[in-house]
Amino acid sequence: MAAAVVVGCLAIGFGLSSGEKPQPEEPLVIEQEAFPSNAELAPEPPVDTFAAVTEPAAEQPWNEQVVRSGDNLSLIFKRAGYNDRHVHRVVTESEHGKGLARIYPGQTIAFQSDDKGELVAVRHVKDKLQTVSYRLEDGHFSSQLLTREPELRESSATGVITSSLFMAGQEAGLSHTTIMDMANIFGGVIDFVGDPRKGDTMHLMFEELYLDGEKFDDGEIIAASYNNQGKTFTAYRYTDSNGETGYYNEDGVSMRKAFLLAPVDFTRISSNFNPRRIHPIYKTARPHRGTDYAAPTGTPVYAAGDGRVIQAGYSRANGNYVFIQHGEQFVTRYLHLHKRRVKQGQRVSQSQVIGTVGSTGAATGPHLHYEFLMNGVHRNPRTIHKQLPKAKSLAASELPRFRQAITGISAQLAALQQETDTRLAMANASEDRG
């Protein structure tokens, strides 16, 4: 009986809608044989062949509740017609019950009762891939985690820069997430705020996740290349023999550098490093020992490298600020933040969101003021990378395995590049004839 309940739960979690009911099987009809007339045999009482066949009880519909902002379990159970006693039983009696404490707006919690109105099942749809089913069995609630595996499909895209990386990515059909992933991969060698030029080309091979024949989510970038003013940068995703995954160029050199060239996304430089600039508010010659990135309020700000937050606070001039120490030599500073996402003393990793762009303090508009100090001296964030430590390479013993792993991928990437070059050459020839 327990096995039948679990199977039914699976069907409910992913097949039946809240209003559907399983159709009962038709009762089995048994024909009675005619007994011979024999006075010596006492006639047996007739057998009611339908008495042992029980009609399956009609399953009650599910009552679905969508988690709202500010909700808690008590409120959700109450809306569904249940009390804190039911909450306590589901949470404490089942294996996955504590997971109900971690609910988020937009998720669905569904309830099912028996014909007397008593709670017998709860279904927590965490996302399209995970559902937790709670069911009353033998007087106690048990639970089961139901997981779906999406289908992985490989895809590719090419783009030509006409105005910005973001626009080129959109025109190539790439999602915001994939564009940002590519920018992060090349973030240590290309400043996507200042380096891209019209005519630059990009090529990507990436995964997409499908569910029920429709795209569900973005997968990982498998390989990518970016041609910036005639110089091509290439990156391949590779998991080494120790199980560590990263992106490396064709020579096995890590694409992850000590620092990002730009700590924000999809922005433009509004004011470059300038030791003699006139301050826009104070109207006096004050050194501008950093770079300003104009961006809408709320734009994520990333830690330029691994390190520890040595200061995080507010001042009249800097507004909300974060200072990060990287090793013994380097410090990065992030000023005028709308919100801080880290605290003093906290360890941070490269590309971790440490705050959002704002206009707090002495600022004329929303922007990030970014400074880079080396041994206590301000340096131009856009040029200092040439003096930074070299990137790590794969061990010599790992290189044969790496080259074998990327052989097919590099050929596919080269084909994409050739196709783009041919298309651009034909377009230029057409323009010349015109």
Please tell me about this protein's structure:
- This protein has 434 residues and is an alpha+beta fold.
- A hairpin with a 5-residue loop joins strand 2 and strand 3.
- The protein is globular, with a radius of gyration of 32 Å.
Mean pLDDT: 82
Number of DSSP-assigned strands = 20
- What structural category characterises the helix and strand content? alpha+beta
Name the helicity range.
Answer: 10-25%
Mind telling me which CATH architecture of the largest domain this is?
A: Distorted Sandwich
Shape: globular
CATH class category of the largest domain: Mainly Beta
SSE series: HEHHEEEEEHHEEEEEEEEEEEEEEH
Largest sheet: 10 strands, antiparallel
Number of discrete helical segments:
6
Rounded to the nearest angstrom, the radius of gyration is 32 Å
The end-to-end span amounts to: 78 Å
The figure for the number of domains is: 3
Q: How much of the sequence is in beta strands? A: 25-35%
CATH homologous superfamily name of the largest domain? Glucose Permease (Domain IIA)
GO molecular function: metal ion binding; metalloendopeptidase activity
Cofactor: Zn(2+)
Domain M23ase beta-sheet core: 287-381
InterPro entries: Cell_wall_metabolism_enzyme, Csd3_N2, Dup_hybrid_motif, M23ase_b-sheet_dom, NMB0315-like_N
